[in-house]
C-alpha cells in the first residue's frame, strides 16, 4: 500500500539559513505532490504543488523538487525567518480511487533568531 | 469569501454520547472531504462527498461514523456512541470541482477538536 515518510519529525535551524525538508514515498507513482503548512490549532494551508513531469517549482522563498526516480520531494525555504516556524506536510494523490490526498505526518520546523 | 467554516471549534462529549461536526464549504465549492488528525499522527482521509452523494467513504470506520452533505446546509460528520479513541481534530476541506484539489490544493477549515471524557 502507499506509504509517505517525512524524514524527520523536527528540524531546528538558525534564521537566515535554508531549511530543507524531505518527503519520500513508496509503492506508488503519484501524478501530483503537494506541500502544506500547518500552525498549531489551525487547519493546513496549501503552499505549492508539483506534477510528475515537473522537476522544480518556485514561489517566493519556497522551492519544491520532485524526483520520480528516487521517489522523493524536497521542500526548501530560503532565508528562513522565525515566522516560518510551523509543521510542513507533504501530500500525494491516492492510488485507490483517486478521490483524495494522503498526507505524511509532517516535519516541525523551528527557526530561531 | 469566508473560507471553509467548521463548527464547533471545540466539542467535549462524554463516552456514549453523539458528536455532530459541521462543515460549510467555500462559496461555490460542492466537494467536501473530511480528515481526522490524531495526536502524533498525520491527517487521515475519512470520506469524500458531493452534494447529496457519498463518493468515497473508504477511510471511515464502518460503525458509529456517518457523513452527509445535503442539498441545503452544511456537511455533517456524525459520530455515535463516542469513545475515548475518537478524541482528535477533525478537518474539513473543500474544492470547486471533482479533482480540483489536484491542481489547486485543498482549502481546509480550522477544524473541530473533539475531546471524549
Name the features.
heterodimer; A: 113 residues; mainly beta; six-stranded mixed sheet; five-stranded antiparallel sheet; 0% helix; B: 117 residues; seven-stranded mixed sheet; four-stranded antiparallel sheet; 11 strands; 4% helix; globular
List the helices and strands and how they pair.
The complex is a heterodimer of chains A (113) and B (117).
Chain A: E1 3-6, E2 10-14, E3 19-26, E4 32-38, E5 45-51, E6 56-59, E7 62-67, E8 72-77, E9 86-93, E10 101-103, E11 107-112
Chain B: E1 5-7, E2 10-13, E3 19-24, E4 31-37, E5 43-50, E6 53-56, E7 65-68, E8 75-79, E9 88-95, H1 100-104, E10 107-108, E11 112-116
Parallel strand pairs in B: 2-11
Antiparallel strand pairs in B: 1-3, 3-8, 4-5, 4-9, 5-6, 7-8, 9-10, 9-11
Please characterize this protein's 3D structure.
With about 110 residues, chain A is an all-beta fold. In chain A, about 0% of the residues lie in helices and about 55% in strands. Chain A has no helices and eleven strands. Chain A has strands spanning about 5, 10-15, 20-25, 30-40, 45-50, 55-60, 60-65, 70-75, 85-95, 100-105, 105-110. In chain A, strands 2, 4, 5, 9, 10 and 11 form a six-stranded mixed beta sheet that branches. In chain A, strand 7 (about 60-65) and strand 8 form a beta hairpin. Chain A is globular, with a radius of gyration of 14 Å. The termini of chain A are far apart. Chain B is mainly beta. Helix content of chain B is about 5%, strand content about 50%. Chain B has one helix and eleven strands; from the N terminus they run E-E-E-E-E-E-E-E-E-H-E-E. Chain B has one helix at about 100-105, and strands at about 5, 10-15, 20-25, 30-35, 45-50, 55, 65-70, 75-80, 90-95, 105-110, 110-115. In chain B, the strands form two sheets. In chain B, strands 2, 4, 5, 6, 9, 10 and 11 form a seven-stranded mixed beta sheet that branches. A four-stranded antiparallel beta sheet of chain B has the order 1-3-8-7, with no helix packed on it. Chain B is globular and about 40 Å long. Classes of the chains: A mainly beta (about 110), B mainly beta (about 120). The interface of A and B includes residues 42, 96, 103 and 106 of A.
Amino acid at each position: 500500500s502507499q506509504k509517505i515518510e517525512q524524514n524527520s519529525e523536527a528540524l531546528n535551524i538558525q534564521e537566515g539559513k535554508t531549511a530543507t525538508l524531505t518527503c519520500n514515498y513508496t509503492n506508488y507513482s503519484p501524478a501530483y505532490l503537494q506541500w502544506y503548512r500547518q500552525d498549531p490549532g489551525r487547519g493546513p494551508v496549501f503552499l505549492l504543488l508539483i506534477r510528475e513531469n515537473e522537476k522544480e517549482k518556485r514561489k517566493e522563498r519556497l522551492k519544491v523538487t520532485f524526483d520520480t526516480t528516487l521517489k522523493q520531494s524536497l521542500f526548501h525555504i530560503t532565508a528562513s525567518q522565525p515566522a516560518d516556524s510551523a509543521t510542513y506536510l507533504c501530500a500525494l494523490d491516492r492510488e485507490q480511487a483517486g478521490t483524495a490526498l494522503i498526507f505524511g505526518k509532517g516535519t516541525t520546523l523551528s527557526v530561531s533568531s | 469569501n469566508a473560507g471553509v467554516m467548521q463548527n464547533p471549534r471545540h466539542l467535549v462529549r462524554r463516552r456514549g454520547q453523539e458528536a455532530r461536526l459541521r462543515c460549510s464549504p467555500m462559496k461555490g465549492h460542492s466537494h467536501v472531504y473530511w480528515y481526522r488528525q490524531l495526536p502524533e499522527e498525520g491527517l487521515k482521509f475519512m470520506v469524500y462527498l458531493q452534494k447529496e452523494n457519498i463518493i468515497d467513504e473508504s477511510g471511515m470506520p464502518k460503525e458509529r461514523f456517518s457523513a452527509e452533505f445535503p442539498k441545503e446546509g452544511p456537511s455533517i460528520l456524525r459520530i455515535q456512541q463516542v469513545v475515548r479513541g475518537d478524541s482528535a481534530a477533525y478537518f474539513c476541506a473543500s474544492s470547486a470541482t471533482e479533482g480540483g484539489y489536484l491542481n489547486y490544493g485543498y482549502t481546509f477549515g480550522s477544524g473541530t477538536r473533539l475531546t471524549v471524557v
